[in-house]
UniProtKB/TrEMBL annotation:
Keywords noted in UniProt: Cytoplasm, DNA-binding, Phosphoprotein, Transcription, Transcription regulation, Two-component regulatory system
Domain of life: Bacteria
Keyword Nucleus: no
4-aspartylphosphate PTM sites in chain numbering: 58
Main location: cytoplasm
UniProt-recorded name of the protein: Response regulator
């Protein structure tokens, strides 16, 4: 679209002035606006306000001359209009001075109107060509700038996601990008996300991210040195050596809220003191953002959650939760739930809190499946109320409470069912033990017959009978040995082999420990 070209004519002869204006109005394009003034003083006031693209002035005017007017125009900063001087004086000195003051042409009165308008039209065309060239140059420069920014973002994101040592070629890049402050000043990393993206379409999220980036970029102009980029998870990342990071964060959040009506959350790293620590700062900011998102906090510093990191031996929350559910251990359930939810928040790339709720539902199904496999207790479907409660806009604390309440209820149901099932299982196990050969009486063998896990069989056997499975097997074997010693003529080593003891000495020790007598003493009643 063609921009408006403003033109000012300064002429004290009313007839000449009106004639020029009429001719220009008829012959020039509609996008030219023509202003007429009869003296230099009024013209100067209008020029300061309008900054016309073209000035046409007579030399001889009341009080201030046209050339004196041009002298003042030259003093206006960043203003360079196209000038044409009209005059009745055919003197070289006037023309020379006019050209020195920036005039493109010096026209003598009287002049032929058509030729005069053509001169003006050529100036209008020149302005259009210059504007077009300026636009093209700006366009190319913007493309070049954007290309450079994209390249910088790619490098900076790689520095953020992978620990990088400060090598010579990287140092030169930082110099080129005017980011050498990353090697000389302490800095922090901040990660920004939307307060809630769960109800937005991908297109809406993209538009909002674009607007947030614009506002944040403009805001950061006042908080230098700083750098802004977007990561692959659509989080805006700010790296800044500005001394007051909280002030910077508040400014970005306030401006985005003011201009875009969007609420941002933010995670902030600790202070980094070396370039190669950039990846550490980035990871800290992302983790702090995850915690802030899950717990509905506007901003959270990494130092506030660092003590919750699991740096020692990893706690197996799944196994602990299973054990606590089976044993009815309320404290164990609470511990397992707290650890699991904290772990989900710390170690997953949550884009919004509802992903935490979905992960919690997935975990319930995982635990119930494992319980069914371990105990053979039938699991009911997860109640609809649990789905609804977890899918609400909950905090991590609320999600933990919801999970604990559900698991405690589930534990009670399991305990009741197990008390019924376990007795039947143990009776089946005793039947297998009584009917199988002694050589086959292992925990693994009996568990396979029952199609349950050996550990689970051992657990419920002790719980129901008060006796360990291995002790029960030894008791069965020793009872049979006592019967054979008293009622058969088998030699002692044959009796040991009959009950699957290949080592006669070991059999003797076990028998004496159980009966207080050696096999020989028992046989002969000593």
């Amino acid at each position: 679209m063609q921009s408006i070209i403003r033109m000012m004519i300064i002429e004290d002869e009313t007839e000449v002035l009106e004639g020029i204006k009429a001719s220009l109005s008829l012959m020039l394009p509609a996008f030219c606006q023509v202003y007429t003034v009869g003296n230099a003083e009024d013209a100067m006031e209008m020029i300061r306000v309008l900054h016309p693209h073209i000035i046409i002035t007579d030399i001889v005017l009341p009080r201030m001359s046209g050339l004196e007017l041009l002298e003042e125009v030259k003093q206006i900063p960043e203003y360079d209009p196209k000038v044409m001087v009209i005059s009745s004086f055919n003197e070289f000195a006037y023309a020379q001075r006019s050209l020195r003051l920036g005039a493109m042409d010096y026209v003598l009165k009287p002049f032929e109107k058509t030729e005069f308008v053509q001169k003006i039209a050529s100036i209008v065309k020149l302005i259009g060509d210059e504007d077009h060239q300026k636009f093209e140059n700006q366009h190319r420069a913007e493309h070049a700038r954007m290309g450079t920014k994209v390249l910088m973002d790619q490098y900076m994101l790689s520095f953020c996601t992978k620990k990088t040592h400060l090598q010579e070629h990287i140092y030169h890049r930082l110099q080129l990008w005017q980011m050498i402050w990353l090697t000389t000043s302490p800095y922090r990393v901040a990660a920004f996300g939307l307060h809630d993206e769960s109800t937005l379409s991908d297109k809406d999220v993209e538009l909002q991210l674009f607007s947030i980036g614009n506002v944040a970029g403009e805001t950061l102009q006042h908080f230098q040195p700083s750098y802004l980029l977007k990561n692959v998870y659509n989080r805006w990342i700010v790296i800044s050596a500005y001394p007051d990071m909280d002030e910077l964060i508040d400014a970005i959040r306030d401006n985005v809220s003011l201009y875009q009506k969007l609420q941002l959350i933010c995670g902030v790293s600790g202070v980094m003191s070396a370039f190669q620590s950039l990846s550490d700062g980035y990871e800290q900011a992302i983790q702090a953002l995850r915690w802030a998102s899950a717990d509905r906090r506007p901003a959270l510093h990494y130092g506030d959650i660092a003590d919750l990191r699991s740096d020692g031996e990893k706690y197996d929350s799944n196994s602990s939760c299973l054990e606590a559910l089976i044993n009815g251990d309320k404290d164990g359930i609470i511990h397992a739930v707290n650890d699991k939810v904290d772990d989900m928040v710390r170690n997953t790339n949550m884009l919004h809190r509802k992903q935490l709720a979905q992960s919690s539902l997935d975990w319930i199904m995982e635990i119930q499946s494992a319980l069914k496999g371990k105990t053979r207790v039938g699991m009911e479907q997860i109640p609809l109320a649990i789905w609804e409660n977890l899918e609400k806009d909950l905090t991590t604390s609320s999600i933990k409470r919801e999970l604990v309440d559900y698991f405690i209820l589930l534990s009670g149901q399991i305990s009741l069912q197990l008390s019924i099932n376990n007795n039947a299982v143990i009776e089946q196990a005793k039947t297998i033990i009584a009917t199988e050969r002694e050589s086959d009486l292992s925990l693994q063998f009996v568990a396979e017959k029952l199609r349950i896990h050996p550990v689970w069989l051992s657990h419920i056997f002790k719980k129901v009978t008060g006796q360990a499975f291995s002790d029960h097997i030894i008791e069965i074997k020793m009872n049979k040995a006592k019967s054979l010693l008293r009622e058969s003529s088998l030699k002692i080593y044959e009796i040991a082999e009959e009950i699957s003891y290949q080592d006669l000495q070991h059999f003797g020790k076990v028998f004496k420990k159980r009966t207080g007598m050696s096999p020989k003493e028992f046989r002969y009643g000593k």
